[in-house]
Each structure stands twice: as C-alpha cells, then as structure tokens.
Design brief:
Layout (H helix, E strand, L loop, with lengths): L1 H10 L15 H15 L6 H15 L3 H17 L4 H10 L2 H16 L6 H13 L4 H14 L12
C-alpha cells in the first residue's frame, strides 16, 4: 500500500521534464506522517491544534514547505485509512531510523498527543503500541513524554537531521 501511494504520486507527475511536477514522496516521510496521523486521530478527531503541530513538525524535521507538507498529510491520510494495521508504517521506520531518530519521533508523537491539551486513553495506548512496534523501550517513551511535557516546546532535531 505504501509503495502504491508512491507509485501513484510518481505516475501523476506527468512528463519527467515538467517543472511544475511535484517532487516524489520520501517513503520514510510518508510512513512517519501516517503514524503521526494515527496518533492524531486516536481520540476520534484531528483538531486544528494537532494539524498545526503536525504541519510544523513536517516543516522542521523534513524541511517541507507548507504546501508539500499538506500534500504529504493528504497522501499519508489516504494510506492510513487503507491500512489494516500499523506494521506497514512502523516496519519501514524501525528498519531505517536509529535510536536517536526514534526518540525524536516519540517526542513528536507526545507533542501531538499534548497539542490539544488532553491525553485520551486511546492516545496513550496507541503511543505505547507504536513505540513498541518501533522497538523503543518503555523508559525511552516515558523520557520522551516527560521532555515534551516539561518543555512544552517542539522536539529537538534528531542527530541525523530528519526523523
């Protein structure tokens, strides 16, 4: 499914020489955004504050302009709705991200959960589940939550740049 979205985007770009064609979507960006959207929708709604937080994350960590970030959110949301589980996204991230990048992703997840000012039970559960699928130990997830709650600011950049 993830590859289908990337192929569809590439095939919709038109001629290779077309200067107006959108750039190809990075599979890591798509997987991370889909996971973050799962977290955002965990409480049944994707609020404006969560959208703002996610768009800021895409700009800071993936260096995406606003329009590209919104397009990534659309593509990731379509993939998220078609998926039957989280594994297709987390497996890509687990294989490709180092521990530092996974920690930053955990901070971003908690930042998204806290963006609307409350933690729903399912958001907490899903954050733990995704961290487990990423092979992050519970202590790392707790540290990420504490860092976000303490600072109340966007998560730091990962050592390798993008999460």
């Amino acid at each position: 499914m993830l590859l289908d979205a990337i192929r569809a985007l590439i095939s919709s770009q038109g001629d290779v020489g077309d200067a107006e064609a959108p750039p190809a979507v990075d599979p890591l960006h798509l997987a991370a955004c889909a996971v973050l959207l799962e977290i955002a929708y965990a409480d049944g709604e994707f609020t404006a504050s969560e959208r703002d937080h996610l768009e800021g994350v895409l700009e800071r960590h993936f260096a995406l302009p606003a329009e590209s970030g919104r397009r990534l959110i659309e593509l990731a949301d379509a993939e998220r709705r078609k998926s039957i589980d989280h594994f297709q996204f987390t497996s890509v991230l687990r294989r490709s991200y180092d521990l530092g990048q996974k920690m930053v992703l955990a901070e971003v997840m908690w930042g998204l959960v806290l963006a609307d000012g409350q933690i729903a039970d399912h958001e907490h559960y899903l954050t733990r589940k995704i961290a487990n699928l990423l092979d992050l130990e519970p202590g790392y997830l707790s540290a990420a939550k504490a860092a976000v709650a303490k600072e109340g600011s966007p998560p730091r950049r990962s050592p390798g740049g993008a999460i």
